[in-house]
Every structure is written in C-alpha cells, then in structure tokens.
Write a structure and sequence with these properties.
This protein is mainly alpha-helical. It has helices at residues 5-14, 24-42, 73-78, and strands at residues 83-84, 87-88.
Length: 95
C-alpha cells in the first residue's frame, strides 16, 4: 500500500500532529515503507509456529516468595495523627 501526501496530512490531522510541509514527502516515503513491510509480514506462512513470549526463548528468574522485612505497622501507626481499627484517618478532600 502506498500513501499519498494527502493521506499523510489526514493522518497527521487525526493524530493531532503538526508536521512541516517540507517533511511530508519524507513521511510519505517512510510510512509507505512501513505499510509495505507489514503487508510482507502478513503474507508470511506461520503454520506450525508457536507463539513466543520472548524471541530468545528465555525463562524469567524467580525468587522465593518469602517475607524479608519485619512488620512495622504498629510503629508507623504510633506516630500517625489519627488511626482507627488499624486504618489511617485522613481529612475528606472530595465532597
């Protein structure tokens, strides 16, 4: 698919992008090239190819799910201006 200068202007308007007149030819060429690449890629036979989460076929290193810090809630709430039932009370800001 090849775009025209009018197509690029319309796309820029819809995207709320300001482009200079002298750059329109360059944008037209670049966007047309991207669309041609996407057309080529969509025509590629992918039968039998499984989806991948990562192109390098790597697995994520996971750490053990264990508590590493002490519970300091009582210490923090001791210095809070207002608390009730373990919750911090704050002034109402929205009516």
């Amino acid at each position: 698919m090849t775009l025209t200068a009018d197509d690029v202007k319309k796309i820029a308007h819809l995207a709320r992008l300001g482009i200079n007149q002298q750059n329109i030819a360059s944008y037209t060429k670049d966007l047309s090239g991207m669309l041609q690449l996407m057309t080529q890629m969509s025509e590629t036979n992918t039968d039998g190819v499984l989806p991948m989460a990562h192109p390098m076929d790597q697995t994520q290193r996971l750490r053990a799910d264990e508590v590493t810090e002490n519970n300091n809630r009582n210490n923090f709430q001791a210095i809070a201006p207002q608390i009730e039932d373990g919750l911090y009370l704050v002034p109402k800001v929205i009516e």
